[in-house]
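#lab-general

N.A. 3:47 PM
ok so I finally got the sequence cleaned up, no stray characters, all 604 residues accounted for. can someone with queue access submit it? mine expired

B.Y. 3:52 PM
send it over

N.A. 3:53 PM
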Amino acid sequence: MAKESQMPAVDDLYKLRHSLAHVLAQAVLKLWPETKISIGPPIDYGCYYDFLFKDPISDEDFKKIEKEMRSIINRGQTFEVDTLSADDAIAFWKKRGQQFKVELVEDLKKEGTKEVTHYRNMDAKGEEMFVDLCRGGHVENLKEIPADGFKLMTLAGAYWRGDETREQLTRIYVAAFPSKEELTAHLTMLEEAKKRDHRKLGKELDLFTFSDMVGPGLPLWTPKGTIIADEIERLAKEEEAKRGYLRVRTPHIAKGKLYEQTGHLAHYRETMFPSMILDGEEEYYLKPMNCPHHHQIFASNPRSYRDLPMRLAEYGHCYRFEGSGSLFGLMRVRSLSMNDAHIYCTEEQFEEEFLAVCDLYTQYFKLFGVEKYVMRLSLHDPKELGKKYVDNAKLWMKTEEMVRSAMKKTKMEFVEVPNEAAFYGPKIDVEVWSAIGREFTLATNQVDFDVPGKVGLTYIDKDGTEKVPLCIHRAPLGTHERFIGFLIEHFAGAFPLWLAPVQAAILPVASAHEDYAHAVSKKLKENGIRCQILDSENSLGKRIREGEKQKIPYLLVLGDKEVEGESVAVRSTRSEKQEVVTLSSFITKTVEDIKERRLQSSIG
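B.Y. 4:20 PM
back already:
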């Protein structure tokens, strides 16, 4: 028998959340003794535990569960550990009728584990109150867990072992923090996140829709949503043109042998749509990514070192067969339009090209007001060579060090993550945080040392020898779908002026002012300002509220004085300030703000 302090040290927050999972299971067994328990790990905002209840429970039971959990915490139980042989542990859990624990230990035994640890919750009298199969990582005393620092959040269904043919368990999620203040801040953020949910705002602002007739994960962009997508694509094209990218276009399908040659069929078949068999022809597949097509463009002509670096860019449309359970609004879809490009370069050019992509990232972050981000350097796992990754240990080590060295020169914060590389090389994944602190994986920058040679890409070097180029895969804006989903939540639907589908709403006070409203509309459109007239059929107050609800940056109120002075009363929905300016002045400032893609507008 040993105290928890003998276990290796782990993060204090992990200990708190892990311990609370035990408390949750203990409380549930106290209230429903016939419940079967399975697993209960910490997660990034708390913990969860999966149960098989004899009778269903609901969130109406949360209060009594929380009450019992606080009672357990206040009794100040401690943790003690027992080490059992695998056979003794199996017998222990069989005796208690806990089949999921039995299965876990049996599987550990098959893998060669001879001993397992059990952690027991002990009261002040030394009596056992609860025991669980566990590797450790707990507080010394449950009183270290703030009784007002946790809250039961939701119930969810979860198949045992993630297998839909197995038992469906009930998962209870708990938010847990070191203090009541931190819990309150988290709950406040969740409430704000609900308001900003891109699925909710996307419907309210009429940006995109889904149709059962079209299929799940296949978004349909409305006229307003299409404006946002077009503006983002225009931004990418302008910035890439400045940096020497060459635009290309490729088809939505290709023969299976193309993806077989590049290795995508071997590594990505499960996320590709099934093949199409055409009469008298070979198998075709919907395009899962653009790179195989771009490789064919590079290979279409002889290349020399003078052609490099060659940067081929495309907002290419791709298709991924994501499982129906993983689809989530715009964040996880089956049809996606990617801000893609492939840079073919020499080894000597690699660092400069890689750093230029990182510089583009930071420019976009500034433009969209993204202040918090981190780069994840995804590396290979040597144990997975020949399976998950290309079997070339020497090139893996070389290219990983090349990327690591380049990242250090950027002075950007980055973390190294094992076993998450692309199958053909290391990559940088960009994690960003929205204005309310929600985390998103948006962009990627990948190094490919394998596929160019595999598909026969070569160039003639200065010395006349034939060499294989490196390929950098990059997508700084990710896909339209995920990036716009992020922006909806980041801006809470109140897009910067240049991105807003409608930049100005024109509100004539009465029918007598409608002729001037149409004249103003014509002038704005001639100057490229997107606008619409909210006619005087409804009250002015109601129309102002509608414009604010639609998050239109400017509401232009037109009355007698505005008609007489050829002016507009500009009401900013961002600041709710109103000022009267001449129409020509409004147009000049607005056109400039749009051109400069400013986060904050000059007016209001």
